[in-house]
Amino acid sequence: MLCLVCIGVFLNFLQRMILSSAIIPMSGSMGWDKQQQGFVLQAFFWGYVSTQIIGGSVADYSAKEVLTVSVVGSALLGAATPSTTLHSGLWGLIVVRVAMGLVQGAMYPSIHSLVSRHIPPSSMSVASALPHSALYVGLVSAFFITPLVGGKKGEVVPPAAADTGSSWLQTWFPEWSLPFFLFSAATLLWLPFWTGLSLGGKESTSDAAKSEIRDGLSVRVRGLSESTRTCAESSSSKVQEDNSPTEVNRLKSDDELMSPQPVPSVPSEDAISPPLPTRPHMDSQDSPAAADDSPRKGERTGLLSLDAPKLPVRERKDSPKRPPRTLPVQARLKAAMEGKRERPPAQKAAKHTWRYTLRMWFALLSYRSVWALLGCHYAVCGPRIALMTWAPSFINDRFSVSDAELGFFSSLPYVAMAVASAFAGLLADMMIRKGWRVIHVRRFIQAVSMLTAALAILGLAYEAASPLVATLFLTLATGSDALGYGALNVMHLDMAPTMAGLLYGTSNTFCNLGGIVSVPTVGWLLRKGEEAGMAVGDRWRWVFFMCIAHYLIGVVWWLWASSDERIDTALEARLRKQHSGADERDASGGGTAAVKEGHHGAESGSSSV
Question: DSSP letter string over 544-583?
Answer without folding.
Answer: HHHHHHHHHHHHHHHHHH------HHHHHHHHHHHHTHHH
